[in-house]
Amino acid sequence: MTAAPSQPSAIEVVGLTKRYGTGKPAVDSINLRIASGSYCCLLGPSGCGKSTTLRMIAGHESVSSGDVLLENRNITNLPAAERGTAMMFQSFALFPHLSALDNVAFSLKMKGVGKAERLAKAQDLLERVAMGQLAGRKPGELSGGQQQRVALARALITQPKALLLDEPLSALDPFLRIQMRAELRRWQKELGLTFIHVTHSQEEAMALADTMVVMNHGVIEQCGSPHTIYNKPLNEFVARFMGGHNVIETSAGKIGVRTDQTRIAHADSSETAGLPSIAAVVTDVEYQGTYVLLGLQNPGSSHAVVATAEYAVMLSEGQFSAKPFAVGDAVHLAWTPESAHALQG
To answer: Which DSSP letter does residue 168 get?
Structure first.
């Protein structure tokens, strides 16, 4: 599946494939266009091919077949340093014996840029990412968030046309992760660069991306805006992976209904009369502060925890207080026809 951005594409991959040995390809002939100046997130479960795709774009992984284009220039066989892209790794990969300033300036040093010029450019970038006052510190003297800012400045000093980020927030604690993703989004907008960001977090991708690319088993399952993918998942895999949806078999086929748009009533109640519904049993009640999440199963199912619950319903705290449910309650799980979305496959 190919994205169709309205603005020119910065990155385009055509029939991109990666094979290891004779088994199923890690990336299987994918086509993707990423709009210039946009923030794109590749996401999916472990082993889906998202990081391999990013490494092929970066030049850190060879391409078995297909092409990678940057602003209509074929860069498939170019070394990483000659592509016009820069990579931020999950580990940040900073040199521990160098100061923040020297880490940022290192690539310019390798290119033979004079000391005064490269250090001035490095200092300017550190100022831009609010690290100017810590330029003399070594990585071991910096927090995780500060190290990430240094890694970003180091990537930007090469003036790339696209910045590639391989799970850059996964090593941070939850509070810092939220703070840093807001900063990444702000930097991307201010710089006007194309960012391609690999993550396994649906929440992270929805917070950051203009375009989300959901991958599974080396192929692209769906590509679109966060709003489109969350509200109109193309198939059962996307609906289940993104979460927040019930996948329900009906006589007309398989549908998805968002958990916050699904209705629930006790089995002896007529509240959902006239609506399509299925019988279920409450298997779990989770208080989440502003809402309560109910896990449900078809009667007789052996599952008993919300992580493996077949269905879920999200109720506001007020709704649950007015009409509580308990584990073991027999219920009707219902929905309105307009809240249902047909799923392929």
So the answer is: T
Find the distance separating the first CA and the last CA of the chain, reported in whole Å: 15
Rounded to the nearest 5 degrees, what angle is found at the Cα of 17, between the Cα atoms of 14 and 22? 160
Domains observed in the chain: 9-236 (3.40.50.300), 248-342 (2.40.50.140)
Hey, what are 324's tokens? 């509580």
pLDDT tens per residue across all 345 residues of the chain: 444 444 567 899 999 999 998 889 999 999 999 999 999 999 999 999 999 999 999 999 999 999 999 999 999 999 998 999 998 877 778 899 999 999 999 989 988 999 999 999 999 999 988 899 999 999 999 988 888 889 889 988 988 999 999 988 887 788 888 888 888 898 899 889 999 999 999 999 999 999 999 999 999 999 999 999 999 999 999 999 998 999 998 888 899 999 999 999 999 999 999 999 999 999 999 999 999 999 999 876 554 443 457 899 999 999 999 999 999 999 999 999 999 999 986
Give pTM, 2 decimals: 0.87
Identify the burial level of 83 via C-beta atoms within 10 angstroms of its C-beta, where 0-12 means exposed, 13-18 middle and 19 or more buried. buried
Checking 221-229 for CB contacts under 8 A at 24+ apart, the result is 221/1, 221/44, 222/1, 223/1, 223/2, 223/3, 223/32, 224/3
